[in-house]
Amino acid sequence: MRIHRSSLSLSRPFLYKSSAAMITKNTSYSMFSVLFILYFSTNFSFSYGVDSITANKSLSGNQTIVSSGNTFVLGFFKPGKSSRYYVGIWYKNISPRTIVWVANRETPISDMNFAELKILDGNLVLMDKFQVTIWSTDVNSTTPNSVVATLGDDGNLVLRDGSEPRTIKGFWQSFDNPTDTLLPGGKLVYDKHKNTKQLLISWKNSEDPAPGLFSIEVDPNGRQFIMRRNRTEQYWTSGAWNGRIFSSVAELNYVFNISYVDNVNETYFTYSLYDPSSLFKSVMDVSGQLMQSSWSENAKEWNLLWSQPRQQCEVYAYCGPFGTCNQNSLSSCNCLQGFKQKSETDWNLKDYSGGCIREIDSLQCGDGSTFMDREDKFLINSQVSLPENSQSVTVRSAGECESVCLSNCSCTAYSYVGNACSVWNGELLNLQQLSENNGSGRTINVRLSASASQFSRTKKGKWVIIGAVVGSVAVVIVLLAIVVIVICRRRIRTPNAVEGSLIANIGEDNKSNIGVPFCTWESILVATENFSDANKLGQGGFGLVYKGIFPEGQEIAVKRLSSCSVQGINEFQNEVVLIAKLQHRNLVRLVGYCIKENEKILLYEYMPNKSLDAFIFDQNLCKLLNWKKRFEIISGIARGVLYLHQDSRLRIIHRDLKTSNILLDEEMNPKISDFGLARIVEGKGTIASTNRVIGTYGYMSPEYALDGLLSMKLDVFSFGVVVLEIISGKKNTGSYQSTEDLNLLSYVSG
């Protein structure tokens, strides 16, 4: 029962002037305070700390319920700058607000102050100001008068019989109706009797929780996860479940405990955390990627631990029709020349599904024999991945291929490669702009109207004229400057001076102190025989490693970073500058580097026995490592780590210590390599925090993986894992003996 304002109307004579009641001024204030508190506690159905909605209580406006442990909140919210309201669940003590479930994601309301969330006829119902049902749990209850909706500390909203214990499973729960987020304990289910699947479906954009384009589901036939665009086009799978792990994402076992259940009634996936006190979420993001993050209380932000697909451009048709995805660009999505964003507002909200539309005019129809001045033209787009759903046409030349497309009103593009003609009708989807050194790039000719082509050329033409004039003047000035510089430096010019412009890429502060020779691109091509497969030593997430031999006979290992490597220019600079200052017999020696356009090359001393993991995980090679040699390798690694932490001029945290980064020389002496992720700890400081948790799962310490706490303990933890792998000959992934031992650490401790 609510107490309305009228029932609290107290006249001033009653409060201050009633001598018959002998009420003093102080007593009057006390009474007013009590009544004031009573008014607000009854006028608002709940205060923080109440975790249930009952038959005689409801939510409206800013009212909320909070789980018993103060972890989750249920109430009304408005995403971003949107003017629409939703009922949702979010974390109580995390800012900015992180939504994990939305009730009315397809039916928002315009005013939360007149809306009401309540129990009605045994259901949890959302009604608007006209008492029209907006959303409902829509279940049948045998005891409608005793139904309550309770929010648990796991984020699960449960509709249950209030007379039964809370441990009894209710007849409806939000975990059975997920939106875009799967919390620990939640499930993704395939019901075999009803032939229905639960999906995690992304938001439409960052301010609209309506179902978006991307989803993930359980595939009972393949015993795997599948990601789809528009519920149809498959673009990623987890790999099959083998009873312990999903084959393509084995690293997940390090983060949490996975369960995949397949029985006569249903197939479902669920997971739980090794540390129940951690906050963790799996989200089908608007980017089309499944993102798994943990909350760092220290940094007060979410740390991204894992995402799939790893590359944004692997998401099918991420940039929409006539949009191109460029993994190496600051903006992942761009429109083809002659096209513009269909909705700039959507693109600003990272919703690229609408893609691009033509800038001006529609296409002409016909074979071009009439109105030649209005004939459609084709703009060349090179070094792209070709869209799917092409049609092959038999022709004798590129001109004939173009004519075939022109004669078809619905043809939008053609490609002529190796005497093969392919044409596309309608929208072009899943275009990717590839780097110059990617050998799979092709050329596609996109159809534009004649006026659109002229418009593009006109825009370019003005800048060409301006550029030509300015460029001519600049060329003269530059040439004069070069002549003066050459004359002045001719007598003191050295090979190091030639390398100056490229060394500058490493940074002005380090140019003079770098201490590592710069090698020319041509000399590296000669040493590696143009990166021939015969000289390939190995491959990792960073790229390829080749063996090279310089003319004087020096053997080197050439690390060629790929354009899509997780080791970018910052890591490259870090490794060159840092390792040049480190000298120890158990650290690999950097002998040179090279930068040329997109190519980033590191040259190391050659290790004939390659890396440690090649020995200890090989059934035959591991026999070459007796216990004495394994002890010597462990001791050598320990000396290298001790040098980094205490004895070097700089206190270094390696951050990626693992068996594949331990190289072995001709005498099987270990040398720590790959300092791209290393961090310098200033002064005597040993603890820091990072907003970017990077490294290799299985070797990360828990406080670093979950909270971003960075200290020398990270390397010590990694060293411990390496020692266990050396002794046992087993990797810290997968399961051992039983499904309870999900990694090497739990196997050993058990």
TrEMBL record:
Q: Which GO terms describe its cellular component?
A: plasma membrane
Localization annotation: Cell membrane
Example of a GO MF term:
ATP binding
Q: Which Pfam families match?
A: B_lectin, PAN_2, PK_Tyr_Ser-Thr, S_locus_glycop
The record's catalysed reaction(s) read: L-threonyl-[protein] + ATP = O-phospho-L-threonyl-[protein] + ADP + H(+); L-seryl-[protein] + ATP = O-phospho-L-seryl-[protein] + ADP + H(+)
Q: Where is the Protein kinase domain?
A: 531-750
GO biological process, alphabetically ordered: defense response to oomycetes; recognition of pollen
Apple domain location is: 365-447
* Coiled-coil region: none
Spans through the membrane: 463-487
Q: Which InterPro entries match?
A: Bulb-type_lectin_dom, Bulb-type_lectin_dom_sf, Kinase-like_dom_sf, Pan_app, Prot_kinase_dom, Protein_kinase_ATP_BS, S_locus_glycoprot_dom, Ser-Thr/Tyr_kinase_cat_dom
- Give its E.C. classification number: 2.7.11.1
Top-level class of the enzyme under EC nomenclature? transferase
Q: How does it sit in the membrane?
A: Single-pass type I membrane protein
Keywords (A to Z) from UniProt? ATP-binding, Cell membrane, Disulfide bond, EGF-like domain, Glycoprotein, Kinase, Lectin, Membrane, Nucleotide-binding, Receptor, Serine/threonine-protein kinase, Signal, Transferase, Transmembrane, Transmembrane helix
Sequence ranges assigned to domain Bulb-type lectin in this UniProt record? 50-172
* Entry binding sites for ATP: 559
- What's the family? In the N-terminal section; belongs to the leguminous lectin family. Belongs to the protein kinase superfamily. Ser/Thr protein kinase family.
Protein's name in the database:
Receptor-like serine/threonine-protein kinase
